[in-house]
Design a protein that fits this description.
Layout (H helix, E strand, L loop, with lengths): L1 H13 L6 H21 L16 H17 L6 H32 L10 E8 L4 E3 L2 E12 L14 E7 L1 E3 L2 E3 L9 E9 L12 H7 L5 E4 L4 H5 L12 E4 L8 H20 L6 H9 L7 H10 L2 H4 L3 H19 L3 H6 L2 H19 L4 H19 L5 H15 L7 H19 L1 H10 L4 H34 L2 E3 L2 H25 L4 H23 L4 E3 L7 H12 L10 H11 L10 E5 L8 E4 L4 E4 L11 H12 L5 E6 L4 H4 L2 H7 L2 E6 L7 E2 L5 E4 L2 E7 L30 E5 L4 E4 L5 H10 L8 E3 L11 H7 L3 E4 L12 H6 L4 E4 H4 L2 E5 L3 E5 H4 L8
Parallel strand pairs: 4-8, 14-15, 15-16, 16-17, 21-22, 22-23, 23-24
Antiparallel strand pairs: 1-3, 1-7, 2-3, 3-4, 5-6, 7-8, 7-9, 10-11, 12-13, 12-25, 13-14, 18-19, 19-20, 20-21, 25-26
Helix pairs in contact: 1-4, 1-15, 2-3, 3-4, 7-8, 8-19, 11-13, 11-14, 11-19, 13-14, 14-15, 15-16, 16-18, 18-19, 18-21, 19-20, 21-22, 23-25
Amino acid sequence: MLSGAVVCLALTQILRRPVNRACCASKTWILRLRVGCLRHVGWVERSETHHFSLRNSDGFRYALPILRTCLALAQIKGRTKAINAAFLALTLAAAFVAGFGWAAWRAEILLERSLPVEREVRDLIATGVVAEMPQPVDGGTRFVFALEGLEDEQGNALPEAETPARIALSWYSAMRDGVFQPPPPLAAGERWRLTVRLKRPHGSANPNGFDYEAWLLERGIRATGFVRARSVAMEAAPEGVATPAMLAQRLDGFVAVSIHSPAYAIERLRAAVRERFNTALPEGPYAGILVALVVGDQNAIPSEQWEIFARTGITHLVAISGLHVTMIAMLAGGLVSRLWRRQERLVLALPARRAAVLLGWLAAFFYTLLAGFAVPSQRTLYMLSVAACALWLGHTGKASRTLCLALLIVLLLDPWAVLAPGFWLSFGAVAALFYVSLARLGMRRAAETAEEGAKAARLGRAVFHSVSEWGLAQWSATLGTLPLLLLFFHQFSLVSPLANAVAIPSISFVITPLALVAAMLPDPLSSMLLAFDHTLLSWLMRLIETLAAWPVWRQAAPPWWTMPLALLGLVCLLLPRGVPGRLAGVILLLPVLSSPAPRPPAGTAWLTVLDVGQGLAVAVRTAEHTLLYDAGPRYGLETDAGSRVVVPWLYAEGIGRIDRLIVTHADTDHSGGVASVLAAMPVGEIFSSLDEAIGERCRAGQQWEWDGVRFSILHPDRYPGENLLPDASGKKTRQIADKPNHRSCVLRVENRTGSVLLTSDIEASDEAALLRNHPAALPADVLLVPHHGSRTSSTPAFIAAVGARDAIFPVGYRNPYRHPHPLVLARYADTRTWRSDVDGAISVVLGDEIEIAAWRRQSPRYWHGR
């Protein structure tokens, strides 16, 4: 529906002029073409395995009669303003409905070939081609695999409807003869036969969080998984017996006969360029940036450098954005124009302007291919294509119409582009620049006409004019994207204008072109140029790292109603000086800049069990305080739930400080994200059961009260090596085992209405100790199920003592431990259960009443669970 709305807005600008005789013929022809195309495709059936037809699509079925009515109105002679208004309204309605139908049809085609649930996490034999440049990851390789066929372990081919077209695989090092063996080298275009384990697309679902499933959908990836080092069949086979179905086997070094062969060749070229850069700069700290600027490999940039770019607002520059593609097209076009004009025969054969347009577009096209044809660069290429066609044909249409036509093309080719923040940021920045330049066009022409004087004076004014124009462009782009940055990322770099003013010309006009030239030159010229380019980049990064120490504006995600007001405010603020009402824009921008973060009233607690995969992170908010109970798992050497999920969620909720952090125990699925949280924001007190010196040890009997909400630690009573403590009966209890799970900090949160019990990873013996030592404190309305539903926990006696009405299972989708265990689920049969792998983030409101809500149920998407 969002795609349909944006298509409607784009056509508003394209068709906003009243219908007159001059344009009636062209618009009538366009309408006839639309009706004819829709009527034609409406009768086209898909293949036998695809039973969906366009004729049955509601969007197209409803759009046809509306377009027919528009066609009839366009042919009426002597039209009045009412007829013109009706024509425009009906055309926009048809565009909206057709846009919705187009997106729904594309989604149906993509979702139809999905991996069945019963095939998940089972050995399958996949035959296909490495479709993209493989990416090195911690302990292995990650790559996209274009499936040609999928078989079960017995070699039976799965139907096409059960075979996704593209899957994402990870191939990790395997233990052989006591030594970890890395996976074999992979290259795009190779055909392999692999034993894999797959699962349907699934990602964490949290408020204001990254939608991984939507990202996979846009890329056409319908399953994820890993390559099995040893299949079940291999383990069951007699010693020394193996079949090709059991082993990874390279079938073809390069698939030369395929419609995708050119794409595979380009991917190989990208990999070769990346390897050349890494070889030429083995110790270069910023070599990954040069790789990202040329081939779009953003994984080459370390996480600490990404943090610097985010704090200075230049992230868009180190990814291959529309700015780089545009600058390459401008440089190539300008160079061709200058050289072309010097050759009379060339000018006579083809005007220099057309030659510059053609070769500038070709440069942008090849750069986009080299960059992996990423979605941001695709959008820019489509926009440049519209502008190039207009210049080639000699049309000087309005810039706004060119922008809207490019917007329409993007949505037709990629209906899911509206889900990406980059879509709104790129088009928003360009729209702001167009708006500012057009608003000042008349004033600039008048100034140029009246300008007279000495040559030196004109030169000085020209320099001043260029600097002021550059500053105006920076101001416009920065201000125009400010509300969007706060909406999507909940922060804004205060030094962004200064950092961009230095980084944009340096990276776009110097560093990136030099890196591209180095990629085309042979050695040793390539290595010498890369070393020089890396030196220039090092000088720039010193300045950027200095600017990164400046503060960053952070606030809660603004409410939706502040965005229209902010848009009106930008329209006012970006008007030329002297226009009345400009300062009214400041007032209209205040709501988006100062919306207070929601907080619970006194006596109420908001608990949010974040969806972090197989791990735990719970945030508890009262009227004036925030507590974080664990920080989620570690995903890799450089990534964890703290930086990916917890900290972004805290910023989106307007939380800039944690009053108390409880690290329940040392297992990395609970403590893996702690370091990222501590590095991102101030933390008051820390309670933990870790042996390392990290705050105060949590211990039974610790209590405090915040804003009418009471907190109590119930476990552990003691730690290994301490003196034995008496239990409730006065008897000495035995020494506890030195295992992290037995140290888990158990927290009770209660107000005058109800209570929640957070149990972390306690096991059966710890539950028995709680029943002995704190039986009166166990009853609760909501229970965070111990140890993710492991069969070593949740004894019947403990469940009965708690007597919770709701039980929450914090588990990862298809986790390797198979939590929660079916026996444990059966014990909670009389309790309403919630699961983070199914429900996403789960929120509990502990107020006058207890309310529980799940994020996936509150914000359902048609691609979730598909």
